[in-house]
Amino acid sequence: MADKRKIKTEASSSSSNINNGRGESVVVDVGRRRSSCGYCKSGSNTSITHGLWAHSLTVHDYQALLDRGWRRSGCFLYKPEMEKTCCPSYTIRLKASDFVPSKEQVRVSKRMQRFLEGSLTLKKPDEQKDSNSIHLPDTDNVKTDNKSQKNNIEQFLSNEIDSIVLTCTERGEFPNNLNFPKASVKTVAPSKRKLQADEAHDLLYTSNISFQISAALKRANKSLQKEDQCVDPNPKLIAEMLSGHLSNLPSSLRLSVKACNGHINFYSTELQSQTDPIVGKPDSSSTSGKSKGVSVNKQSLEIRLKRSGFDPEEYALYRRYQIKVHNDTPDHVTESSYKRFLVDSPLIYVPTSGDATVPPCGFGSFHQQYLINGKLVAVGVIDILPKCLSSKYLFWDPDLAPLSLGKYSALQEINWVRENEGYCSSLQYYYLGYYIHSCSKMRYKAAYRPSELLCPLRYQWVSFDNAKRLLDRKQYVVLSDYASLENEGDLLDNNVSEDEIEQGEGSNDVRVDGDEEMSEVGFDDSDDDSGPETSSLTPVEMRQDVSNIVIGLKGMHLKYKDIRQAFGANERNYLESQLHKYATVVGTELSERMIYSLG
Questions:
Q1: What percent of the chain lies above the pLDDT cut of 70?
Q2: Rounded CA gap, 375 and 396, in Å?
């Protein structure tokens, strides 16, 4: 079946885990930080969090931090100071076995099913204005104008080459101080095919961009010493490099790519009888039937789970997504920022143990790839922990927005938890990140029902239906106080309508997480607020003992009570003040388990 999902785990792929070799959590406390808010767009530093840098972090410790309202962005851990921050962010989760899909979520699944079966043809974004769609070369549509389709395919291939050139420049394969010309892909007339390729009968399109890049490199090399000329301007080598990067074209194009005498040539992968084989009918093996007189193809969906690591294809998709969906400027979406945000992870990987304590993929940070006909169309960045799958971020092909890949991937992640609970009995929950009641973009998270929100003071889980009535009154509330409202008769109706919850989802289906806004916050530029602070902490929490906190200092790990006398009076007072704040935000148990690094 074309819609049969193949789940793969690539445990052998590269990982970015930072492990000190002993399975210990080592953190640096950076205290309270102020920054601008990406949700309310207040224009000033109204977002207030407590932050930690994690050198390494066990999955059990990160699970405990999640259950106290923490999240991570790369190796940076943060927790909103709920009473002070402009947009209080509540941790939201769902017990996967209790999940009941809404009508809209069922429609999303059915829409994907129809698309994979070939009975649904997607409209291109902006009413066909974007020519980069995976369905652009819909060669099965008998009503398609051949000339228009040729132009669309030419533009699609040109854009693909430009994207590869940009990626090569960012990776240092081309000098980053040169402005290369835009690629131009042209249809090869039958009379000229023999002049450009040996396999002339299958040659459809060609580009001479390699010669233009070569000329630009030669001009640049003239101004350099011979030993500084690190890029060979040979157009044949350039064509071979670019064509190698272009090897994964969408299967719907039915094209293969090959370098030939400095040209990048695109060949038909099917035998056709037309004189000018640009558009041909699919063979019987690829045709599933007809819908309203139009022949259609089945599509295959594959889902791969791999350890977190840098993948150029993922980065290229992320770049397109950020620029087109979030309107980021190209110079803002860099490879280094992508790695910091979505590749780097402090989580120490735990391989499967063969019993009911670890799932087959292990615990740690992963990327879940979605491929349609072998083309990467979405990536879910997730953490798999002892109690949950924690969804961190999702980016997808903007041309496939009608498929609601954000909602679809969330359904797949919930299903993954259900399936893997059989391998790991403690793995029962799906964490959706932060929920901000005042942010309309967050409404979709509450549509995965029945969900719960974490009380920011007592760290108890409260059903969303109950919490919503408190949040309707004010932004910051102690959610575990909902019982007092029940006594007043305010919660007689605990059923929140699906329409009320889903009204803020938006047609673009953009999955937003608190991590999205933390990804590029100028953390180092944020103002440290170390002045006096008020708190709703109970006297017990304020007076807790810090003597058993493990201090990491010059390679040694010692309890604070064993080294406190090594500090002068002023140093000791300052350090103990910081340790009290640290123990308060992470909890006594974690503060005595993780290593508080002083350098």
A1: 73
A2: 11
